[in-house]
Specification:
Elements: H1 5-10, H2 12-24, H3 38-49, H4 58-68, H5 74-83, H6 109-124, H7 132-139, H8 144-159, E1 163-169, E2 174-180
Antiparallel strand pairs: 1-2
Length: about 180
């Protein structure tokens, strides 16, 4: 124990603070700590790495995928295969997915996620087309390159190291911290 640590831990101030904490914290009045969604962190980290304009929409993409019961990596992976994750597409179209041979236009990224997810769910997933290979049979006429790219991007997104954010309670304050978890 460092010199002075025992004195600090047994000081009247520490005893008073400890007593205050223990009397004011119970299982019933602890603030709820919500774990961050690791998928959002992985996707955000991956999209940053590929310099995608979609990076700020990572949470919305995951939420939309959840809403429609899709694999959370599918829409970003399709955007990777079709437009290098939104970097190469018709200006102002928000069409990172190659829809209508790139001619489809959306009003916003959020609208594009919603529309693409809904159509993938209804026209593909609900009909048993639930893998990149099966989806490609309609989406892009079974392009082998598209299948390899989407499959590879999904694996890369999954394997991305994420930034884990957490809160820890110290005697005097709440501390926000983050660290990068290395890829295993």
């Amino acid at each position: 124990m460092p010199k002075g640590a025992l004195a600090a831990a047994t000081s009247p101030d520490w005893a008073m603070m400890s007593s205050h904490l223990s009397s004011n914290l119970s299982i019933h009045n602890l603030p709820e700590i919500i774990e961050p969604d690791v998928r959002v962190d992985k996707l955000r980290t991956f999209l940053k790495k590929v310099d995608s304009p979609l990076v700020d929409y990572s949470s919305q993409m995951v939420k939309t995928a959840d809403k429609y019961g899709l694999d959370w990596r599918l829409i970003p992976a399709i955007s990777g295969a079709e437009s290098s994750f939104g970097k190469f597409m018709p200006k102002g179209s928000f069409n990172a997915y190659g829809w209508n041979s790139g001619a489809a236009r959306f009003l916003s990224w959020e609208q594009s996620f919603e529309k693409v997810a809904k159509v993938l769910k209804e026209k593909y997933i609900d009909r048993g087309l639930n893998t990149p290979t099966k989806i490609a049979s309609i989406y892009c006429h079974s392009s082998v390159t598209w299948i390899k790219n989407v499959t590879s991007f999904m694996a890369q997104i999954e394997a991305t190291s994420q930034e884990i954010k957490y809160l820890s309670v110290l005697p005097t304050s709440l501390v926000y911290s983050s660290r990068t978890i290395p890829r295993l």
